[in-house]
């Protein structure tokens, strides 16, 4: 009786229970656990990235995260993402919104200019550079030798002049100093102080002078004559670097330029109407390639002459046409290959092929003064 009752109860219970596929349930459970692990791992990785980049993540209750916008400088190993190119602004928009300035042009004359001025009692050396102006004043003796001989080296490092002229005013003592007149010292005695250019520089250290009836090349650093034959040509003039010499051979009546193993003979005929007023002409400046010379007049009296008025191409014996307007007062070939043409109150700056680079207005304090040197 009891056994039959038990069998009937078990049969009824079996009919009330819904059959379940344990295999399907096990698979679903396994997938759910895997998804949870993946989400957990992803969230942990995002938290680590946020910590490295200083960005906070807000984790939602449902397990999702608000991801920050990617920084432009971050480098990652994620798969490449296609980026839509940013449209280029129109030319009109660029013109109306751009505030950038064009690159500044280098100064036409960015170096230092040295002018020389004389009064009755002093010499004034004007040093002009990039809008700055410095004046060095040196007292003059009454012999007149200093005013006729004071000169500035092409590198702008030193002055040289003849002072304490003899009673006849024809010769004196050769001295040198810094541009400001300091560290003055004697180099030689019995140096002639007459003539249109009694002292001529060969580069920055050597100086040609006249003593008696001969030439002597002085080493202004060592303070003594330079070794070697100075030669006896007249009207000598060197390029600013001292490598090319323009001179006149009085014995043969020839003008020539020589340097670096090259000899160039040339001729020049000055304007006749002007030539009648002077005692000839001579070279005053030589280009650093030895191809051009600037020429100036020699006065009818034995006084200095610093100006020049024309340029001659010595390879063709032709006058070069100089750009610009106005009477030319001086022409200077520079160490950096430029050509400075001094006119009334203005400097016209040319390149080595005589193309105009620009012009510079001279300060009022140096207008009309001698431009003796330019150092880039």
TrEMBL record:
Pfam family for this entry, one: PD40
Bias kind Low complexity: ranges: 89-102
Domain of life: Bacteria
Annotated region (Disordered), positions in chain: 68-106
InterPro entries reported in the protein's UniProt record: 6-blade_b-propeller_TolB-like, Haem_d1_sf, WD40
Name under which the protein is recorded: WD40-like Beta Propeller Repeat
Organism encoding this protein: Micromonospora inositola
Taxonomic lineage of the native organism: Bacteria, Bacillati, Actinomycetota, Actinomycetes, Micromonosporales
């Amino acid at each position: 009786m009891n056994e039959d009752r038990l069998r009937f109860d078990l049969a009824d219970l079996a009919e009330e229970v819904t059959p379940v596929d344990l295999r399907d349930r096990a698979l679903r459970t396994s997938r759910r656990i895997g998804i949870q692990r993946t989400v957990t791992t992803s969230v942990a990785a995002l938290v680590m990235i946020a910590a490295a980049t200083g960005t906070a993540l807000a984790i939602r209750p449902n397990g999702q995260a608000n991801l920050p916008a990617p920084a432009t400088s971050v480098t990652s190993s994620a798969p490449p993402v296609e980026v839509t190119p940013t449209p280029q602004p129109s030319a009109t928009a660029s013109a109306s919104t751009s505030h950038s300035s064009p690159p500044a042009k280098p100064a036409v004359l960015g170096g230092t200019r040295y002018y020389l001025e004389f009064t009755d009692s002093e010499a004034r050396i004007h040093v002009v550079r990039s809008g700055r102006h410095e004046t060095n004043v040196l007292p003059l003796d009454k012999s007149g030798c200093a005013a006729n001989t004071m000169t500035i080296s092409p590198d702008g490092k030193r002055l040289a002049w003849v002072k304490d002229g003899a009673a006849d005013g024809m010769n004196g003592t050769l001295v040198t100093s810094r541009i400001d007149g300091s560290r003055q010292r004697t180099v030689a005695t019995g140096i002639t102080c007459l003539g249109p250019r009694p002292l001529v520089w060969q580069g920055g250290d050597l100086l040609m002078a006249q003593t008696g009836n001969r030439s002597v090349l002085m080493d202004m650093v060592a303070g003594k004559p330079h070794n070697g034959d100075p030669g006896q040509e007249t009207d000598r003039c060197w390029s600013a670097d001292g490598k090319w010499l323009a001179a006149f051979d009085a014995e043969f009546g020839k003008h020539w330029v020589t340097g670096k193993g090259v000899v160039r003979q040339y001729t020049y005929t000055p304007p006749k109407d002007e030539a009648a007023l002077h005692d000839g002409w001579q070279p005053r400046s030589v280009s650093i390639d030895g191809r051009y010379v600037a020429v100036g007049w020699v006065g009818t009296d034995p006084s200095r002459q610093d100006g020049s008025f024309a340029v001659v191409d010595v390879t063709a014996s032709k006058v070069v046409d100089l750009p610009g307007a106005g009477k030319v007062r001086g022409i200077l070939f520079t160490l950096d290959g430029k050509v400075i043409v001094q006119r009334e109150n203005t400097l016209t700056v040319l390149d080595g092929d005589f193309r105009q680079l620009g012009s510079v207005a001279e300060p009022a304090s140096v207008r009309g003064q001698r431009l003796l040197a330019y150092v880039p």
